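Case study 2.
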Amino acid sequence: SSSQIETLAKSGEPSYTLTLTAPLGGTVIEKPVVDAQMVQPGMPLFRIADLSTVWVMADLYESELPFVETGQEAEITAPAYPGRTWKGRVDFVYPYLQGRTRTNQARLVLENPDGLLKPDMYVNVELDRNLGNQLSVPSSAIFDTGKRQYVFVEQQPGIFVPVIVGL
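Prediction:
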């Protein structure tokens, strides 16, 4: 700071220690220097992050993509904190797949006021999507001939009629 420079100029003596004040509040997430290391101007000494709001990167299967959209609400749980949940929302859905995993990523934003969620922590994301009313039957109720699939629908008490269904 300017006052530190003035103090040094007035004393004319070198200082073996230096107090650094961060330009912002947060958590030190990286310290690439060690004690007694010489530093140069512009060299990073610390990396600080504000972890009160965090991003969660969710991996999505291709089949799930039609059901995920920006602004969608999500519930996040962490194995490290059983019974604890956080609310978030989808902030961005990336426009490409990850080549190795064949998954797509979505970025979720959530508040982390107590700082429990840490960078690179594994979490589970549950996205809720109303798909409307859907007719579903258990797979055990489907009769498969190899060419067609049928279910038997009761037309009258005790009278069942086969109906072709698509899987």
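Residues 2-11 form the longest helix (10 residues).
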